[in-house]
Design brief:
A hairpin with a 2-residue loop joins strand 7 (about 145) and strand 8. This protein is about 25% helix and about 30% strand. It has three helices and eight strands; from the N terminus they run H-H-E-E-H-E-E-E-E-E-E. The radius of gyration is 19 Å and the shape is globular. The chain has helices spanning about 1-10, 25-40, 80-90, and strands spanning about 50-60, 65-75, 90-95, 105-110, 115-125, 135-140, 145, 150. It has one domain (about 25-150).
Length: about 150
């Protein structure tokens, strides 16, 4: 009888179940792997003692693709010193030729077969609600291999 009712009226998932069945769980699993890769990519410059917090983001509840990290760095780190440390660790200025959307990043680095990008941003007293003031490093894939057309990352 329940099957018939679901077929006629449709069955909704319970609260908190969004993105947790089928492709939703696959998306979450991929996002976790992506975010682990991003954290690994910046760890040479942003060791755990230089990170105040790490926020993980994914698009699994809406677009079913994409992941990113936001790293709040220690207050003693300054933008110019942080930039220099990333460049010395092998990160290069992004160019319009590297990939679609790559210009959203200030620096990029090749990690295995992936291109990872960062943007260094400062949140001030006008920061969005819930966002701590300070210097943030936004990290995401710059190779556009996970989009609305699927997951093509290696």
């Amino acid at each position: 009888m329940m099957v018939l009712a679901c077929a006629l009226a449709g069955c909704a998932s319970g609260p908190g179940d969004e993105g947790m069945s089928g492709s939703g769980q696959l998306c979450v699993d991929r996002a976790k792997r992506e975010n682990a890769l991003y954290l690994q990519a910046v760890s040479a410059v942003l060791a755990s003692d230089k990170r105040v917090s790490v926020d993980e983001w994914n698009g699994c509840d809406s677009a079913n693709n994409g992941a990113a990290l936001s790293v709040l760095v220690s207050p003693e780190l300054r933008r110019d010193a942080l930039w220099k440390a990333f460049v010395e660790a092998g990160w290069s200025p992004a160019s319009a030729a590297c990939a679609p959307g790559c210009t959203d990043f200030q620096l990029v680095d090749q990690v295995d077969q992936r291109l990872i990008g960062i943007a260094i941003k400062e949140a001030t007293d006008t920061a969005p609600e819930g966002r701590h003031q300070g210097l943030w490093v936004e990290v995401a894939a710059a190779d556009s291999c996970w989009d609305d057309h699927g997951y093509r990352c290696s």
